[in-house]
Amino acid sequence: MNINEILNYKDGDHVEGLTGWVDSIRDHGGLTFVDLRDFTGTVQVVFDKSGEIDIRLKNEYYISIDGNFKKRDDSLVNKKVFLGDSEIEVTNLSVINSSKTLPFQIENDIDTDENIRLKYRYLDLRREPMKINIMTRSNTFKSIRSIMNELNIYEIDTPTLIKSTPEGAKDFLVPSRKSPSTFYALPQSPQMYKQLFMMSGFPNYYQIAKCYRDEDSRKDRQPEFTQLDLEFSDANPLIVKSNIEKIVKFVFSDAYDCKITTPFQTLTYNQAMNLYGTDKPDMRIAETLLDIGEVFIGTEINFLNEILESGGVVKALHTEELLTRKQIDTLDEEIKELGSNGLGWFKIQNKEISGPLAKLLRDEEKNSILNYGTGTLLFQAGDFNLTAQYMDFIRRTIFNPSSDETFCFVWIEDFPYFEYENGKLQPSHHPFTSPKDDKIFKDDPINATALHYDLVLNGVELGSGSQRINNPSIQKLVLEKWGLNDSEIEERFGWFIEALSYGTPVHAGFAIGIDRLVAEVLNQPSIRDVIPFPKTQSGLDPLTNAPATIEEEILEDYNLKYIIKDE
Ligand code: ASP
Predict the structure, then answer these.
(1) What's the pLDDT tens digit per position in 302-354?
(2) Cβ contacts of residue 543 below 8 Å, gap of 6+?
(3) Is residue 510 lining ligand 1, measured as CB closer than 6 Å?
(4) How far is the CA of 223 from the centre of ligand 1 (A)?
(5) From the centroid of its chain, how far is CA 168?
(6) Mutation choice for ligand 1 from 188, 191, 231, CB with most ligand atoms inside 8 A
(7) Ligand 1 atom 7: the closest Cα is on which residue?
(8) pLDDT in tens, 522-536
(9) Residue 357 has what DSSP assignment?
(10) Mind listing the pLDDT tens digit for each residue in 429-448?
(11) Is the peptide bond before 263 cis (omega within 30 degrees of 0)?
(12) Please, what sign has the CA dihedral across residues 237, 243, 244, 249?
């Protein structure tokens, strides 16, 4: 039986077959006290040492006891623990299994290296904070399924051995033994399949889907992650966004007992970049970026003059705080690490301006700067995107989230269709996204806008979606502008363009990162903390030692061979 089953027991009631782990042991005179822990809670059980029972127990032994339930004296009630007002006087003990010495204690606060925690993840998951994380994840799945049922959205699954779906990362490949020298890809997302459902006549679709992207693991990235994937036929961005708001609102109230306000605010990509320096703004911080380029037109500060003349920008943030030299130097070092040439700053105090460039200011520049009032004006100048990136960092560093709302959602839309990544043109979402205007896309794809929308929560990209292309010739055009030639298009996407050619409805969809959602709700530092068995930052699983080498004879079945590359 479980500990929570004895919640309503009364003094003297007999407890039989209560199982759990030995959480801690304390010897007091003739009595031994053991905290017994199971999934549902912890209860103190008491052994009388003068009795017959052999009490050689250690932490994490899994035991079963019989005994008598007893309410503790008022003076002994431990209010901090579940069932702290009760104990069980043990009459019978059986040790179901002993435990080796633990690699770390099963306690709430441990500072054990994460690799060790992952190697013994099954022990790590016995700890209360991890249990809460995983149960919150489980409750999230449960709430998603209830709202999906209520909204009449169909849960349909898609294959995981597929031909590559481009989402901007590298694929994980699975060699085929039956057709040697060929490979399946694991889905980066079920994107093309969910669109095929719309072509197949299903009005909508959802799936709690595993996605695989071979990219560097960071605190909010994992090679394998879980998303709530959705698609709607006859839909447009407004319909999708309103469904997502219903879903998110329900899950927050049902799974996290938290009321959130809808509709969420919407910003265009350009607004977000101008005001916050990022397309993932943390809206809990009220302060926005100032464009102070105008102040310096014709300035005697040479480098600013050059930047402005070559089309660059000067972006600033004003804080009422008079930052210390040490704070300024630290910020300067941090943004230099990001690639900036250094932090620009003016301090404004008693109607005087100080700072390395203060002496070079002309009177009208001084007056404009004094207008910001006492405090510190921090700025960056140069190319718009880089400046935005540094100012976003400064904003998140110098200001604390101060909104009354714990969870601040914002939609970002009207993204550029393409962006440059390592000098190559890439769709900012994926190449199945509809351009906002087909003609502009055709004539000037670099400056075209996509019908792509992201949902951002507290500065974290929670999900993305788009209006899809439902016209085969536009689909082909997008792939061409992306840089694929006819034979590549045919080879990689010919089957999909063919599928689009049989009366495809208008459709649109979205996907929400469930790991990110749970991590954000629980304020966890990394998504690894809310994934039961995550990989390390380098993509390894210390528990099973995956990925592992394969014997050469097995590789032969797949027509594969190791090539040792010289470094
Ligand atoms: N497939 C996209 C992604 O995984 C989401 C979508 O467009 O629905 O990011």
Answers:
(1) 999 999 999 999 999 999 999 999 999 999 999 999 999 999 999 999 999 99
(2) 118, 119, 120, 121, 122, 533
(3) yes
(4) 16
(5) 17
(6) 191
(7) 465
(8) 999 999 999 999 999
(9) T
(10) 999 999 999 999 999 999 99
(11) yes
(12) positive
Strand-strand pairing, 41-48 and 86-97? parallel
Three-state SS letters, 68-94: EEEECCHHHCCCCCCCCCEEEEEEEEE
Rounded-to-integer distance, Cα 59 and Cα 49, Å: 18
pLDDT for residue 167: 79
| Closest approach atom of ligand 1 to CA 466 | 7
Q: Which pLDDT does position 562 carry in this prediction?
A: 93
Give the number of the atom of ligand 1 that is nearest the alpha carbon of residue 165: 1
The structure tokens listed for 540 are 């390894």
pTM listed for this prediction? 0.94
Written as six digits, the tokens of 545 are 């030692």
Query: Who contacts 398 (Cβ-Cβ below 8 Å, separation ≥6)?
Result: 317, 319, 321, 323, 331, 378
* Mean confidence (pLDDT) of the chain: 95
Alpha carbon 12 to its chain centroid, in Å, reads: 50
List the structure tokens of 565.
């590359």
Q: How far apart are CA 285 and CA 394, in angstroms?
A: 12
Q: Which phi and psi angles does 129 have, rounded to 5°?
A: -60, -35
Cα–Cα distance, 82 to 105 (Å, whole number): 20
Cα 6 from Cα 67, distance rounded (Å): 12
**Atom number of ligand 1 nearest to Cα 227:** 4
Atom 4 (ligand 1): residue with closest C-alpha? 189
Judge whether residue 31 has pLDDT over 90.
Answer: yes
Identify whether the C-beta of residue 60 lies closer than 8 Å to the C-beta of residue 105.
no
End-to-end CA distance of the chain: 58
Q: Is the CB of 189 under 6 A from ligand 1?
A: yes
User: Quick one: which H or E segment has residue 520?
Assistant: helix 514-521
The residue whose CB lies within 8 Å of the most ligand 1 atoms, and thus the one to mutate among 212, 455, 464, is 464
3-class secondary-structure state, position 223:
coil
**Is 338 in contact with 400 (CB distance < 8 Å)?**
no
Nearest-CA residue for ligand 1 atom 8 is 510
Q: For ligand 1, is residue 191 a contact (CB within 6 Å)?
A: yes
Q: pLDDT for 248-265, tens place per residue?
A: 999 999 999 999 999 999
The residue behind tokens 């976003």 is 392
209 CA from centroid of ligand 1 (Å): 11
Instruction: Indicate if ligand 1 lies below 6 Å from the C-beta of 427.
Output: no
Q: What is the pLDDT of residue 567?
A: 67
d(CA 34, CA 17): 16
DSSP of 85-121, one letter per residue?
A: TEEEEEEEEEEEE--PPPSS---SS----HHHHHHTH
- Ligand 1 nearest-atom number relative to CA 468: 7
